[in-house]
Specification:
8 helices; alpha/beta; about 45% helix; Arc Repressor Mutant, subunit A
Length: about 220
């Protein structure tokens, strides 16, 4: 059976895109990922992730990464129909529709797993797909592999921004002092790189305006 693992990276930054990745592999081959040293990307150094990424791509049947730019994230958060979890569910369905697994394991971003899966199924072509959604699903090698590709892809996107701007933007997370300073000095200059619905961005642009909460729990 072909099994798909799905995870995201950079859900919380105020700068740059979020990346969602799905990895498809024969279920019998998941042990190969474990033997390679594949585990949750947060537990690996950048160098180790870069080392593992091409090796993962050689072992798996296929993979798909979706880059979600700041503008699309903002549009979802400003929409009465969507939020970040629903946007992620829609993109997850796009990956599953593309990869066509027999089974899928998803690192669930929502506290309400049942509601998340019900919403996700709306967008699935295969309504009977065997879905498992869990918190901290990176303990499954196939999800960990997806987390590594998502993270390396997202980090490269941040490096592209850094290279184009030629200024130190830091990690892009609101808690980073370098990012805070860059945001303060450049929020009008580089509009396309910021998530404008983030509280940290609104504090700079409209100090007295009520703000949406930040996503600080897990920095992927």
């Amino acid at each position: 059976m072909l099994i798909c693992g799905i995870d995201e990276a950079r859900r919380g930054p105020v700068i740059g895109p979020m990346v969602l990745c799905g990895v498809l592999i024969e279920e019998k081959d998941t042990q190969k990922l474990k033997q390679m040293g594949v585990k949750d990307s947060k537990l690996l150094t950048p160098k180790k992730r870069e080392f593992l990424e091409p090796r993962i791509k050689k072992v798996v049947h296929s993979y798909k990464a979706i880059i979600i730019p700041p503008q699309e994230i903002d549009e979802a958060l400003e929409s009465p129909e969507l939020n970040l979890n629903k946007l992620e569910a829609i993109k997850t369905a796009m990956i599953l529709n593309c990869l066509k697994p027999g089974k899928a394991i998803i690192d669930c971003p929502s506290t309400n797993i049942k509601a998340y899966l019900n919403y996700l199924r709306i967008y699935l072509k295969d309504k009977k797909l065997n879905l498992k959604a869990e918190h901290n699903a990176e303990r499954y090698p196939v999800v960990a592999a997806a987390s590594i590709i998502a993270k390396t892809t997202a980090d490269r996107e941040l490096k592209k921004i850094q290279s184009r701007i030629k200024e130190n933007i830091g990690s892009g997370y609101p808690s980073d002092p370098i990012t805070q300073e860059f945001l303060k000095n450049n929020h009008k200059k580089y509009l396309e790189i910021f998530r404008k619905t983030w509280a940290s961005y609104k504090r700079v642009t409209s100090p007295k305006q009520s703000t949406l909460p930040e996503f600080k729990t897990i920095q992927k």
